[in-house]
Amino acid sequence: MNIKQTADASGVSARNIRYYEQAGLLTPARNPENDYRIYTDADVRTLKLIRVLRTLDMPVEDIRAVLSGTLPLTEAAERQRRQLEAEQQKLAAAAAFCTELAAGDRTAAELDVDDCLARMDSPAQAGGWFTGWVQDYRKMAAAEHKRQFTFTPDTAIATPQEFTAALLAWADENGVDVNMTRESMTPHFMLDGIEYRAVRYSSHVRNIPILRVRCEVCDPSALAVEGDPKRLRVQRFLHYGLPVLVCLALAVVWVCTRNMPLWPDKAAMLLVLGALGIGYGFRGWYLYYNDRDQ
Fold first, then answer.
1. Cβ-count burial of 20 within 10 angstroms (0-12 exposed, 13-18 middle, 19+ buried)?
2. Residue 38 Cα distances to 5, 27, 35, 54, angstroms
3. 229-256 and 129-147 helices cross at what angle (nearest 10)?
4. Comparing C-alpha atoms, which of 219, 185, 188, 187 is closest to residue 202?
5. What is the b/e burial string over 116-135, where b = at least 16 CB atoms within 10 angstroms of the residue's CB?
6. Residue 165's pLDDT is what?
7. Per-residue pLDDT tens for 153-162?
8. Where are the alpha helices (DSSP H) in the chain?
9. Is pLDDT at 33 greater than 70 in this prediction?
10. Is 189 exposed, middle or buried (0-12, 13-18, 19+ CB in 10 A)?
11. 280: phi > 0 → left, psi -120 to 50 → alpha, else beta; which?
């Protein structure tokens, strides 16, 4: 069967089938004449099993372990049951809190926010809204750390072979398995069942050449985090932007305490510091975010 026929037979979209292949959940045979994928009835059954487990919201990592036989289905199901019960408790606690707020006649200005926060932080609220927010942030941050990472190669990179050697050397130093899928000056490789692309960047610090390698996932949907899109946007903004905002706030305080006219001296200084802060912040994120040097 081709991928369209397999998608119709399994109820799994062609896009998700390709994602499951990249994630290491499915390994179809290849036609030796044209290298096209050939799907069998066993592959269709595997996809249906994946569909069942994903409907239970089971993580891809656990499904991979179940399919490989390293994690018994019973143990995976019990682990997921506990996770779903915890999620259910979070939703119940959040719903109860909303019901309480809706039933009261207090305005936002009258709400005792300290009491609300204390109750959210208390052990009685374990699994409640606040804890859920923190847990969602941790999931988002973990996904972002998998989405991209950087490192400094030990040697120069001038050819595709040297780039491959640098990636394999980094993998060996960090104790991870990397399988190269494309050798070039923008190579692709598989890490933990996810395909990444690598790009090299060179810069100079005080006339000293600095070489960095940035690796990012080829298909962002492979690391999609389930949750409220608005909450995830806020969490990503805090994850990436909060350090820059704190530095800019400190710069504003420092400038405002200087004995100089507000216009144009302080305004010009704020603009310059703001531009430098944003520029260096972006550079730091792009070249040094999630640094994995040993």
1. buried
2. 10, 10, 9, 23
3. 80
4. 185
5. eeebbeeeebebbbbbbbee
6. 93
7. 888 899 999 9
8. 3-10, 14-22, 41-55, 60-68, 73-103, 113-121, 129-147, 160-174, 229-256, 267-288
9. yes
10. buried
11. alpha
For the record, the structure tokens of 100 come out as: 């309480």
Eight-state DSSP code of residue 152: -
Residues 6+ apart with CB under 8 A from 196: 188, 189, 190, 215, 216, 217, 218
CA distance 215 to 192: 14
Tens-place pLDDT, residues 256-288: 777 777 677 777 777 877 777 777 666 666 656
pLDDT at 211: 86
Query: 150 by DSSP, 3-state: which?
Result: strand
Nearest to 183 by CA among 166, 171, 202, 170: 166
Output DSSP code: residue 263: I
Q: CA-CA distances (angstroms) from residue 101 to 98, 107, 121, 231, 284?
A: 5, 10, 17, 20, 42
Q: Which residue has the higher pLDDT, 130 or 46?
A: 46
The answer to whether 195 touches 188, Cβ cutoff 8 Å, is yes
Measured CA to CA, the distance from residue 17 to residue 29 in angstroms comes to: 14
Structure tokens at 70: 């390293």
Residues in the chain: 294
Q: What is the 3-state secondary structure (H, E, C) of 184-247?
A: CCCCEEEECCEEEEEEEEEEEECCEEEEEEEEEECCHHHHCCCCCHHHHHHHHHHHHHHHHHHH
Domains, the chain: 3-68 (1.10.1660.10), 86-127 (no CATH), 144-219 (no CATH), 229-288 (no CATH)
**Both structure tokens of 38:** 């050939």
The two structure tokens encoding residue 229: 């899109």
